[in-house]
Design brief:
CATH architecture: Alpha-Beta Complex
Shape: globular
Strand content: 5-15%
Mean pLDDT: 87
Membrane topology: Single-pass type II membrane protein
Pfam families: Branch (PF02485)
Subcellular location: Membrane
Keywords: Glycoprotein, Glycosyltransferase, Membrane, Transferase, Transmembrane, Transmembrane helix
Largest sheet: 5 strands, mixed
């Protein structure tokens, strides 16, 4: 009897320890996953934004004889530190207060001293309720959807949504960008093309597709439907609404990655979703220029102060599409001063 009890106790202890280590390993390897509470909180936000948009659309229909309201661009900033290029963006926005809104998703670990200058600046930025984010995790998808939903809720006149990095700079004046997105008052109401990179022929696509497991994305996402693209986009409102209303693909993209080195959910979710639901409504190219020559650790080339020149700005604008690039990344903090020195004469002179 004693030996039997000892055996049962030892077996129970072994199973308990094994279960503990399994849970520990699972949680430590997937510490960036979205909690159920956070996911439900986001779903509630997305639902409110979707309902609000429907109500605003009905109200606009009833007031169709009135002059159209100004068409605005919502600039969505993702940041985990201070916004180094704030002075440059202040100059960019100056004089256009009725044509834009700025929304900031600052990682909760960001110090208040880094955010204060932004909130006190002339651009009147709005800090949205944020949750922690981490590179190469679905938290970045959540943050971007959160930015879209808050911008939709905040102002029904936000018709385009430009996702901007803390290391991004503008390559043109505000007027140039607004006029190209809304070429006329009549076109503004019908501006519905999104500018997002959508690629299907990248050499690393298969590794990224199976990063969660061989068949983890099935049946919702077949390999031939999987896409990759730049994290940064300019979405029309109808596509922003499509993103926050989507549920099926999100269940797959928030799964834990087994191959973390090949897992960049934010570069796949948006291109895959829009490619499946409205490929002809998207440009398939991004408006944010990034230099991947000499990239290090998955990060693009970072321009230093010595590289800043009028020639650099002109070269970064050029693209193979019908539009110039609007924005560029990645720039070092030391490059701010030389950028400010050529802002009026070069960057904002189109």
């Amino acid at each position: 009897m004693f030996s039997s009890s000892t055996l049962v106790y030892s077996l129970s202890l072994f199973l308990s320890i094994s279960l503990f280590f399994f849970i520990f390993l699972l949680s430590s390897s997937n510490h960036n996953l979205i909690s159920t509470a956070d996911d439900l909180d986001d779903l509630s936000l997305f639902h409110r934004a979707s309902v609000s948009s429907n109500n605003n659309y009905r109200r606009l229909i009833s007031l169709s004889s009135s002059p159209p309201p100004p068409s605005k661009i919502a600039f969505l900033f993702l940041t985990n530190s201070d916004l180094t290029f704030l002075p440059l963006w202040e100059s960019f926005f100056q004089g256009h207060r009725d044509l834009y809104n700025v929304y900031i998703h600052a990682d909760p670990t960001t110090s208040s001293s880094s955010i204060s200058p932004l909130l006190d600046s002339s651009i009147n930025a709005k800090l949205i309720p944020a949750k922690r984010t981490a590179r190469a995790s679905p938290t970045l998808i959540s943050a971007e959807r959160r930015l879209l939903a808050n911008a939709i809720l905040d102002d029904p006149n936000n018709l385009y949504f430009a996702l901007i990095s803390q290391h991004c700079i503008p390559l043109h004046s505000f007027s140039y960008i607004h006029n190209h997105l809304f070429p006329s008052a009549a076109a503004a109401a019908n501006s519905d093309q999104s500018f997002i990179e959508i690629l299907s022929d990248e050499p690393f696509l298969e590794k990224r597709y199976i990063a969660r497991g061989e068949d983890a994305m099935l049946p919702e996402i077949r390999y031939q439907d999987f896409r990759v693209g730049s994290q940064f986009f300019v979405l029309a409102k109808r596509h922003a609404l499509m993103v926050i209303r989507e549920r099926k693909l999100w269940r797959k993209f928030k799964l834990p990655c087994l191959d973390v080195e090949s897992c960049y959910p934010e570069e796949h979710y948006f291109p895959t979703l829009l490619s499946l639901q409205d490929p002809k409504g998207c440009s398939h190219f991004t408006l944010t220029r990034v230099n991947w020559t000499g990239s290090v650790g998955g990060h693009p080339h970072t321009y230093g102060a010595s590289e800043v020149s009028p020639q650099l700005i002109h070269s970064l604008r050029r693209s193979n599409s019908s539009l110039d690039y609007f924005f560029a990344r990645k720039f070092s903090s030391e490059s701010l001063q030389p950028l400010m020195e050529i802002a009026d004469a070069v960057i904002f002179r189109d």
